[in-house]
Design a protein that fits this description.
200 residues; mainly alpha; Arc Repressor Mutant, subunit A; Tetracycline Repressor, domain 2; 2 domains; 69% helix; 0% strand
Length: 200
């Protein structure tokens, strides 16, 4: 008798099966929490066997980390795409666009961000901070090269600005008060522009 775990054609490429498992895990983690979700449930949600799960991941923690990495890479791409649409010499607008893309992306995916990065322990030195900071670091380096601002250490500045932004957004996501998105973005914009000497 056919079961949910045997419905996927065996001709599915490994990348598709891995993606199906990650999508199922993300859905279940959001609905039930990481601790309450079992590997059996993830496999069933992906319409694969438990054995197929272990062909791609060693544990539930490993698939959680894979979801964190996937989110970070997609987030990086979306921020870069937004900044790239701004005319090349409009540095002030590039900075404000980075703020809007970053803050908006984190707020729009608030439940996912909380589940991935705040609800379950994550090992140190994963490299994800470098991934999400990279769009700002590249922007700061490019602006410095064109004389838009002067920085002693662009990496220090990028980490400082992103960490401050992330802390404020985390406070908004985890707080009980309703977030005024416009006010939040305006405040972060002002701090970033001031730090770069672009405040009006």
């Amino acid at each position: 008798m056919e079961t949910a775990a045997t419905r996927k054609p065996r001709t599915q490429p490994p990348e598709k099966r891995r993606d199906d498992l990650m999508n199922a895990a993300q859905k279940l983690f959001l609905e039930h929490g990481i601790l309450a979700t079992t590997i059996e449930q993830i496999a069933l949600g992906a319409e694969l066997s438990k054995g197929a799960f272990y062909l791609h991941f060693d544990s539930k923690d490993e698939i959680h980390l894979a979801l964190c990495e996937r989110f970070s890479l997609r987030f990086n791409d979306s921020v870069r795409e937004a900044v790239a649409k701004v005319p090349k010499d409009d540095w002030r607008r590039k900075v404000t666009t980075w703020v809007h893309a970053t803050v908006g992306g984190l707020l729009d995916e608030g439940d996912l961000v909380n589940m991935l990065f705040h609800s379950h322990p994550i090992p140190a030195n994963t490299g994800w901070d470098d991934i999400v900071v990279a769009p700002l670091l590249d922007l700061l380096d490019a602006g410095a090269a064109r004389g838009a601002w002067k920085l002693e250490d662009s990496r220090f500045t990028a980490i400082f600005l992103y960490s401050g932004l992330h802390g404020v957004v985390d406070d908004a996501l985890m707080g009980e008060r309703r977030t005024n998105r416009t006010r939040l973005m305006r405040g972060i914009e002002t701090m970033c522009l001031t730090a770069l000497g672009l405040a009006e």
